[in-house]
Write a structure and sequence with these properties.
- Keywords: Membrane, Transmembrane, Transmembrane helix.
- By secondary structure, this protein is an all-alpha fold.
- It has one domain.
- The protein is built from seven helices and no strands.
- Helix 2 packs antiparallel against helix 3 and helix 3 runs antiparallel to helix 5.
- It is globular.
- It starts with a helix and ends with a helix.
Length: 186
């Protein structure tokens, strides 16, 4: 198989994986936000929204871990892999920003898009892609190929920043900075 064919297959498979992940994200989001009391007994609302919410955040947290290796294994280019891996997160964030424009101004809604859940998902995605890239470089080790240092450092930096945003002081430190920025802007 020629290099052009491999890149074409990588392009195709990366987009197919993205469409599957994005479809699952959309289904979970719709199940989470649907007005269950109109369709089913009220007792179904809490369990269904809980399961849909957990699945939604699992999809968001693991989207790059699914899309990146599928495209990388088939030979997709690095920039395409990064774009397609983060596209699900960007679509979810845009969906959330649109949702909050109902009760916030456009500027406040756009600022909301920088919330800690979105940033944490991006940082987790950076770590996941770093781990997968290190795995593929180790597996495909050839003479003169790039080393493992870059992907390993990327994965560790993503995890360190994820710790700062979500876990350091239980996330309160980052939230304080986020709120201070909100007060300064609005």
């Amino acid at each position: 198989m020629s290099n052009a064919q491999e890149n074409g297959n990588g392009f195709k498979f990366a987009w197919i994986a993205f469409l599957w992940v994005c479809g699952l994200m959309a289904a979970c989001k719709i199940l989470y936000n649907i007005a269950w009391y109109e369709f089913a007994p009220a007792a179904m609302h809490k369990p269904v929204t809980f399961v849909a919410g957990v699945l939604l955040f699992a999809v968001l947290a693991l989207a790059p871990a699914v899309v990146y290796p599928i495209g990388r294994k088939r030979g997709a280019s690095g920039p395409l892999l990064i774009l397609v891996s983060f596209l699900t997160l960007l679509i979810w964030d845009a969906w959330e920003v649109y949702r909050v424009t109902e009760f916030f101004t456009l500027g406040e809604s756009l600022y909301y898009g920088l919330n800690s859940v979105f940033i944490a998902a991006v940082l987790a995605g950076i770590s996941e892609m770093g781990v997968w890239e290190a795995y593929f470089r180790k597996k495909d080790k050839t003479e003169g190929a790039p080393g493992l240092m870059g992907p390993v450092l990327t994965a560790l930096a993503g995890l360190a920043l994820l710790y700062v945003v979500m876990f350091w002081n239980l996330g309160q430190s980052f939230f304080y900075i986020y709120q201070s920025g909100y007060r300064a802007l609005f």
